[in-house]
Amino acid sequence: MLTACDKEKDDPATPAPTTPAVCGIAGARLQATFQGNAFCANTSLFGDLGTHLTVNGIASNGATLTLELDSLEVGSYEMDGSTNYMIHTSALAMAYETVNATPATLNIISHDTGTNRIQGNFSGPIVEPIGNTSAQISGTFDITYTE
């Protein structure tokens, strides 16, 4: 026996996922703009405090953003290859990272150690290590983390 479906009743192709108008919720938000494209950690997001605070987010298009924060007190800090490191992987799997030669900026706006919630923003250059191409990124985070 053979079966087939009626072509007229098939659903149209599913459109590619898009970044939502609102990214995350209070205490669970990581968003950025990279090369004019919006990044929103709307598929996976976590924060974990160990020797440093690791924040990792994955967007629905496969792009990732990871922050490894050493500086957790309210204030402004450099992000480079050694301290307050950041790596972004585009949807096309191109990796960009902070480097010592051209540090980015990290601003911790608030940090409540009682509720394990930290908020801040970052901006500056990140570099693709193979071709040494530099690009700008800026973003915000509002994370409730585990210890």
Can you tell me about this structure?
This protein is mainly beta and about 150 residues long. It has one domain (about 35-145). Helices cover about 0% and strands about 50% of the residues. The protein has strands at about 30-35, 35-40, 45-50, 55-60, 65-70, 75-80, 85-90, 95, 105-110, 115-130, 135-145. The chain has a six-stranded antiparallel β-sheet, with no helix packed on it. It has a five-stranded antiparallel β-sheet with strand order 3-4-5-7-8, with no helix packed on it. The radius of gyration is 18 Å and the shape is globular. The model has no long low-confidence stretch (mean pLDDT about 90).
Structural class: mainly beta
Helix content: under 10%
Q: Kindly, what is the distance between the CA atoms of the first and last residues, rounded to a whole number of angstroms?
A: 59 Å
Strands of the widest sheet, in order across it, are: 2-1-11-10-9-6
Main sheet record: 6 strands, antiparallel
Number of helices: 0
| Computed CA radius of gyration, to the nearest angstrom | 18 Å
The structural domain count equals 1
Number of strands: 11
Shape: globular
Our estimate of the beta-strand percent is over 45%
Detail the poorly predicted runs. none
SSE topology string: EEEEEEEEEEE
- Overall average residue pLDDT: 90
